[in-house]
Amino acid sequence: MIQEIELVEGRGHPGQKSWILKFHEINTIEQAQKLVGSALLVKDEDRPVLEEGEFYTPELVGMRVFLKETGELVGTVVNVFNSGASDLLHVELLLDRNAKPQLEGSASGPLVWVPFVEAIVPNVDLSKREMLITPPKGLLELNIRADERSKKERRQLEWKERKKFQKRLIAAKKILHEMEQDHIFHGFRYGEKNQRSFLANQIVDVNSVLLQHALQNKKIPYKRWSFPDFVNALQVNNTLKLSKEFFSKENVEHSSIGPKVQEQGHCLISSGKVAIVLALAESKLLGTSSIPEPAAPHEEIASLHVKALLDDSHRLLKMEDRSSVPLIVVCPTESIEHLKQLFMDHDYFSFDSEKVWFLEEEKLPVVSASQEEENKHKILMKSPWEILQRPAGSAGIVTLLSSQNLLEHLHVMGVEYIQVCSGNQEFINGEMLLGFTKSREANAGIQVFRDAGYLEEHFNIVFSIDFAKKLTKKIDKLQFEAILKPNQYVEMVEKEWVDVVPSSPNSYEFHSSIYSCLNACPPSKVCLVDITA
């Protein structure tokens, strides 16, 4: 139903990309609530006159896109996404760029994001319905699948990828050699081709920088993160204390506590300025939900808990806000494919599928604990072709964010804050935490429940995107604990592989809490939302 309504006055909301409007004969909250979710339309002739360099989104959709340097037609704009910092053009590429120029809207092929900034889109011609672009190298090839290339192109691409991998392997082997870990390479002389390839991938994936830092940390007495000490170091005005009742479904909508802070947090979320990193460790998810646990395989039970978390808009994020929020899911390697399928089966739980990433949790090799050679630690092998590894803890999320240039990509999308949280909590909605962090102009914000006893595996932390980028360059600030444990492994003895079964703790596993990231941030730039019973 379309009805006419008279706009009396309006003004921009300070600091937000939104408006506060007054309509004729809409004078009560009840009357205004009836308009929630409605689309406001205006006639073309009543639209404001644009300044130079400004365009209305509908005018860009359907435009043909050409390379400025060559005049080559590359595709068509099919959508425009507002990311906060700058708009992103969704361009549908032509599969055959050598084909004759087609009519507007007739392009077909993979989709790529093109930042709508003058440096990349210098010319837009509304009359011709065309735009010229100067994309950075590789931008247009990001989403093109190999099977859409010719056989020759695929072979060339595979050869380039092999060469690139060989360079990475040589570099990784050199570092491990310098660390006196040459025994890892013994597996290359045995086994099948696929086993040797698996070993090569294992070697390339070792985070040697993080491992060396963890080994250095072992020489320093470990001091466990202390919440009381942390609170004492914070400024009083950087702490917000709330009762647990505030977060109940009944009180969230009607409470008058901190409405400005909560509204500020919600505005950040709804405007796409927040990305969520959700850490899903299946072993810790089990037993954290009130849903019954049927007699089913472990994988299915874990899925039920993940689904219960993502289906609960009060516990995680309102459904209507999810399409604007990038989501990064961090989970064990063996869970990734299963979780991807779970998301696809449930329409990505209202998140935008193109803004969802699945990352393997960071792992570190297990090393020997020899009393004879206290400062020499040998990386243990699970088999001749597999390194024995264990999860590095929640701090490993920091290094994951720097992989695949993910932080820079989020920055281009307009993300200003990153919320990092574990999935094993009763409540992880971050509106209050985000709003308080922004209002205090802090680099980081923490939300804790005293009822949980400040467990390190229960975390809900917000980082500003600028601080997160700095943090990835300050890995030395992470504090690792070396945990002595018994681990079975294999080693080569007189040219024979031998299973070693320990009768006592024989190795170190390294673990670091994400709370140790706060070592890189002065207490005056950290804020706390402290929730009591």
What does this protein look like?
With 533 residues, this protein is an alpha/beta fold. The protein has 15 helices and 25 strands. It has helices at 29-33, 57-60, 151-178, 193-205, 208-218, 227-233, 249-252, 259-270, 282-285, 298-311, 336-345, 396-402, 406-412, 431-439, 465-471, and strands spanning 7-12, 19-23, 64-67, 73-82, 87-93, 111-115, 123-125, 130-133, 239-243, 274-279, 327-331, 356-360, 363-365, 367-368, 381-383, 386-387, 389-391, 417-422, 444-449, 460-464, 481-485, 489-493, 496-500, 507-511, 526-532. The strands form 7 sheets. Strands 9-25-19-20-18-10-11-12 form an 8-stranded mixed β-sheet. A 6-stranded mixed β-sheet has the order 6-5-4-3-8-7. Strands 14-24-21 form a 3-stranded antiparallel β-sheet. A hairpin with a 4-residue loop joins β4 and β5. α3 (151-178) crosses α4 and α8 (259-270) packs across α14. It is globular, with a radius of gyration of 27 Å.
Short description:
The chain has 533 residues and is α/β, with parallel strands linked by helices.
